[in-house]
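Dear Dr. H.,

I hope your travels went smoothly. While you were away I took the liberty of generating a structure for the chain from your last submission, since the lab meeting agenda had it listed for discussion. I wanted you to have the full record in hand beforehand rather than looking at slides cold. The sequence, exactly as received, is reproduced here:
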Amino acid sequence: MTADGVVERSFKVRAELGLHARPAGQFVSLANRFTSEITVGRGDEWVSGCSILSILSLAAEHGSTLKIRAEGADAEQAVSELGSLLETDGAG
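The corresponding predicted structure, in token form, is as follows:
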């Protein structure tokens, strides 16, 4: 974690169907449990990690790389748990 409480790491989407509605819903549900501000990036596009429509707008298919950035007191835990969810083969 940086001095300003920001954590950012990249993860691969492992779900066979990518980050479609159900895994995106699981991601948002988990993201909303944290107090940190969470954003998700693909390429140059960054969206709120707490909005299912924003997550779906990334059109993250199987094998794509997403960056998760969290800023706040529980940023490290948020990025770790959300990244683990993305890298679970059976998610969704």
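Two observations you may find useful: The mean pLDDT is 93. The chain has one domain: 6-86.

With kind regards,
E. W.
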